[in-house]
Specification:
Strand order of the largest sheet: 1-20-17-22-15-14
Bound molecules: 2,5-dihydroxybenzoic acid, fe (ii) ion
Largest sheet: 6 strands, antiparallel
Number of strands: 24
Oligomer: single chain
Strand content: 25-35%
Radius of gyration: 24 Å
Distance between the termini: 84 Å
Structural class: alpha+beta
């Protein structure tokens, strides 16, 4: 008896091959390289804007409805970029949020490996204690809570306070490097003093000898950058350069690098009437409109903004600003990470793009 052995066709052999690849958890590059190797970044993060009126209203609602529990919960509403499939992230690398602390409330102490910044939109009478140093928070101030530093927030006033939180959490999470610890046994750390880091390191380009500049690891030993100093630095820069845009970076006072090793903080001052030159860079940014009104064009889409609005600029998106009154835009970015890995690049264009679509935020009238 003879059995007919038919030679499988190429098609059958290929089908079997692809089935076997799948069964063995292997993916051939030739089927995915088109999505992975692009001529330039194609971010999932989309350009997006949240209105202050909405943020504020919902933060206040959270204040009425949600209590702060022991164990590290903060009353925080995170900016969730619609391009990121429901992830609570402003961009693929950055966390942006508003935090609401009611009168006479405290948010319990804890620490984590993701680094954070607080940028105060309005109000006073609140401090964040960072490793025992009580850092007072007022409008326009930037306060650092570097990686693995203990922190708790305290509102001693009769007014609620809302501020912007920026963290490198999505990046640290992608690296599976998140650690978290509640402060114990008390809710709050003992306060060693108010504004200690400012008195020692406070922004004069004169640094103390014999003090350890690495008290916060690679982060700045100075924990607070006051609005009065930022404002004066921007004014001085604007007096030297006509604009339409000047930018200051918040730096480490000893090495001149970024205030945090993973997150850059900047303040941009825009003068009205002229559009800034189109610019793009690798890495994403979250902008917070501290003062003023105007619009930004992100990859041809126009976002009108005013005080308190927050918006996201994805990696490699072309960005132009035009203010209708003098405006100050605070921004965080992942630039130090890209620079450390030698992946940073940027481009400045001469010609402004003219065509644009206008973005309308959810909840806009
Ligand atoms: O205030 O400590 O927005 O731990 C996210 C995580 C704020 C905080 C956030 C946090 C905090
Ligand atoms: Fe925290």
């Amino acid at each position: 008896m003879t059995t007919e052995i038919s030679t499988p066709t190429l098609e059958e052999r290929l089908d079997r091959f692809y089935a076997e690849l799948e069964g063995n958890d292997l993916v051939p590059l030739w089927q995915v390289s088109g999505q992975l190797m692009r001529s330039a970044p194609v971010p999932s993060t989309i350009p997006y804007l949240w209105r202050w009126s909405t943020l504020r209203r919902l933060a206040e609602m959270a204040g009425e409805l949600i209590t702060i529990e022991r164990g590290g919960d903060r009353r925080v509403l995170s900016l969730a970029n619609p391009g990121l499939q429901g992830a609570p992230f402003a961009s693929s690398t950055l966390w942006g949020a508003v935090q609401y602390l009611g009168p006479r409330e405290s948010a319990p102490g804890h620490r984590h490996t993701p680094a954070a910044i607080r940028f105060v939109m309005e109000g006073e009478g609140v401090w964040t204690t960072v490793n025992g140093d009580a850092c007072d928070m007022r409008a326009g101030d930037l306060v650092l809570t570097p990686s693995w530093c203990w922190h708790d927030h305290n509102n001693a006033s009769d007014q609620p306070m809302i501020w912007f939180d920026g963290l490198d959490l999505p990046t640290v999470n992608a690296l599976d490097a998140v650690f978290f610890q509640p402060y114990e046994p008390d809710e709050l750390q003992p306060v060693l003093g108010h504004g200690i880091s400012e008195r020692i390191w406070g922004g004069r380009a004169l640094v103390p000898a014999g003090m350890d500049p690495t008290v916060n690891g690679h982060a700045s030993p100075l924990l607070v950058y006051r609005w009065a100093d930022t404002d004066a630095a921007l004014d001085a820069l604007l007096a030297e350069r006509p604009g339409p845009l000047v930018t200051i970076s918040y730096t480490h006072p000893v090495n001149g690098g970024p205030a945090l090793p993973t997150m850059a903080c900047e303040m941009h001052r825009l003068v009205p009437g002229r559009r800034s030159r189109p610019y793009r860079k690798v890495g994403s940014s979250v902008y917070v409109v501290f003062r003023g009104a105007g619009s930004s064009i992100i990859d041809g889409q126009r976002f009108d903004w005013s005080q308190g609005d927050m918006f996201v600029v994805p990696s490699w998106s072309t960005l132009e600003h035009e203010a209708i009154e003098r405006s100050d835009l605070f921004a965080i970015s992942d630039r130090p990470i890209l620079e450390a890995l030698h992946l940073f690049r940027d481009e400045l264009f001469d010609q402004a793009q003219v065509v644009h679509r206008v973005f309308s935020a959810k909840g806009d009238a």
